[in-house]
């Protein structure tokens, strides 16, 4: 039953399997630990609240006033699509949110037939472009307790374009 040919085949199979495992381990080590163990920079860092990172301060982008001066009204019109599910641009027409016709320069919570949350009145008096920028960036952070369920626009250029469009639709 065990002749030399069978033993040679079994031994060759074991050696081949060992070779595949060794080459697989070497390849995996090369792929995942190419810079050596602990010498490379981490690809993804998880921020922990309360941890002192000791790093450099986060560099902020350009000031809103500079970006707003160069805002593109046509781009703001395309961004308006996100807002129109809850707001209207016609005067006196409210949806889930109040009408945004003439919102730039208007007193906060001034639409008489719309029930606002009290948080907006505490956040600002007049919807200036700067106040709208802060609100559109993070509505819940700017006016804690607001009923607006929007998460906000991250890009300052998008916010400036949208505010410029809203400013252009009224007289």
UniProtKB/TrEMBL annotation:
InterPro entries registered for this protein in UniProt: Cyt_c-like_dom (IPR009056), Cyt_c-like_dom_sf (IPR036909), Cyt_c_1A/1B (IPR002327)
Key words, A-Z: Electron transport, Heme, Iron, Metal-binding, Transport
The keyword Heme is assigned to this record: yes
Domain Cytochrome c: start-end pairs: 71-170
SUPFAM superfamilies: Cytochrome c
An example Gene Ontology molecular-function term: electron transfer activity
Name listed for the protein in its UniProt record: Cytochrome c-552
Highest rank taxon of the organism: Bacteria
């Amino acid at each position: 039953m065990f002749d030399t040919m069978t033993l040679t085949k079994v031994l060759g199979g074991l050696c081949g399997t060992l070779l595949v495992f060794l080459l697989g381990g070497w390849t995996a080590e090369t792929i995942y630990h190419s810079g050596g163990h602990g010498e490379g920079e981490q690809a993804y860092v998880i921020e922990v609240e309360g941890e002192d990172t000791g790093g450099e301060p986060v560099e902020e982008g350009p000031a809103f006033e500079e970006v707003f001066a160069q805002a593109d009204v046509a781009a703001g019109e395309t961004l308006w699509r996100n807002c129109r599910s809850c707001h209207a641009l016609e005067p006196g027409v409210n949806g889930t949110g109040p009408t945004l016709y003439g919102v730039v320069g208007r007193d906060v919570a001034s639409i008489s037939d719309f029930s606002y949350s009290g948080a907006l009145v505490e956040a600002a008096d007049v919807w200036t472009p700067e106040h709208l920028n802060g609100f559109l960036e993070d509505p819940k952070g700017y006016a804690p307790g607001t009923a607006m369920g929007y998460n906000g626009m991250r890009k300052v250029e998008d916010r400036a374009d949208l505010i410029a469009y809203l400013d252009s639709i009224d007289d």
